[in-house]
């Protein structure tokens, strides 16, 4: 698609992750002049977009918190290697966020309300991503083969009855597969798994880092300017944005969108919005040249991880660690993912050398209620917030960008945004 850079209002997009990249492209097509501020490499290993689970999952409507989760908090503190862990040293700082997190999933009604808000943000996501990818010349990176949740038996599936009940209520459909069909579909999978729920509308990205890099490159080809700078604040006069401040001076502009992921909280505060943004640290382990693996991306019940083929190897991603932005990674968590992968696929080599297993840790930007912040800042309608997507940043990015454009243009958004208002925390 050829777009001639226009002389429209100047928009600064802060952050070149998946949300920022999609927002920049959407803004160019709205006639904005676009500057992207990103101190790191777009699609680089420092970004959450690089190392996520690769899933484009329109069914990811269930927040991390659920009824009764509060009973497990002592275990989260005692087991530093569990699927959800909280570091003792970080507990005093995260307590207010944790209380809101637990309250958001206190009842089934609360979980269902979250699901009803999230579903319109995620629906049709594989098709929206495919369109973006093809325009950027990387259409092969987006595939739709469905996504499967796998279980050792039906009883395990039924232990998650509330989540599946709510998914059905908001329009998610799935196929239930028994042991024989699973073995035909997934011959490399361990035989202990005898039941699956296959969500056919789901898709995945074969290389999220390369995808984000391609979208940013496309934005630049269409006229966006990429500046390797970090935003530090805003100059707002009488409620109108005049400039975005950086460490090396100001960038004069008319509008700005904060898409800086887990690093957005200070910028939001500088724009008059104090929001309880936290990071859920996630890990992945990737086996290079594995030889065996799933035909459909899947998530084992016992591993609580996504397992997906990528162009660089077989990636398993997951884990939630509450430890802030500064703490060093605990690489044993990535090793747990690797070991789950080995147990799920017996044909994988048992003696993998270190150079064939790549590990990574990144920062999910998470709000305590499981919903992103999408909307105007407290200090000026010229500064919009678009961050805090938690586990759905990749899948939700295209429609988030469309909502941001509607809000900037004063149009009615295509889906309700009331639940995403940054002011809900004030």
Fold topology:
Elements: E1 10-14, H1 18-29, E2 33-37, H2 48-51, E3 55-56, H3 73-78, E4 84-86, H4 91-104, H5 108-122, H6 125-135, E5 142-143, E6 147-151, H7 154-158, H8 161-169, E7 175-177, H9 179-185, E8 195-199, E9 203-205, H10 208-221, E10 225-227, E11 231-237, E12 240-246, E13 249-252, E14 255-258, H11 265-270, E15 278-287, E16 298-300, E17 305-310, E18 313-322, H12 332-344, E19 357-366, E20 373-376, E21 383-387, H13 393-409
Parallel strand pairs: 1-2, 1-14, 2-10, 4-18, 6-16, 14-21
Antiparallel strand pairs: 3-9, 5-9, 6-8, 7-8, 11-12, 12-13, 15-18, 15-19, 17-18, 20-21
Protein name: D-amino-acid dehydrogenase
Domain FAD dependent oxidoreductase: 11-405
Pfam families: DAO
Please characterize this protein's 3D structure.
The chain contains 13 helices and 21 strands. The longest helix has 17 residues, at 393-409. The chain is globular and about 65 Å long. The protein has helices spanning 18-29, 48-51, 73-78, 91-104, 108-122, 125-135, 154-158, 161-169, 179-185, 208-221, 265-270, 332-344, 393-409, and strands at 10-14, 33-37, 55-56, 84-86, 142-143, 147-151, 175-177, 195-199, 203-205, 225-227, 231-237, 240-246, 249-252, 255-258, 278-287, 298-300, 305-310, 313-322, 357-366, 373-376, 383-387. The protein is 31% helix and 25% strand. A six-stranded mixed beta sheet has the order 10-2-1-14-21-20, covered by helices on one side. The protein has 426 residues and is of the alpha/beta class. It has a single domain (8-66, 114-425), classed as FAD/NAD(P)-binding domain (3-Layer(bba) Sandwich). Helix 1 runs parallel beside helix 10. Strand 11 (231-237) and strand 12 form a beta hairpin.
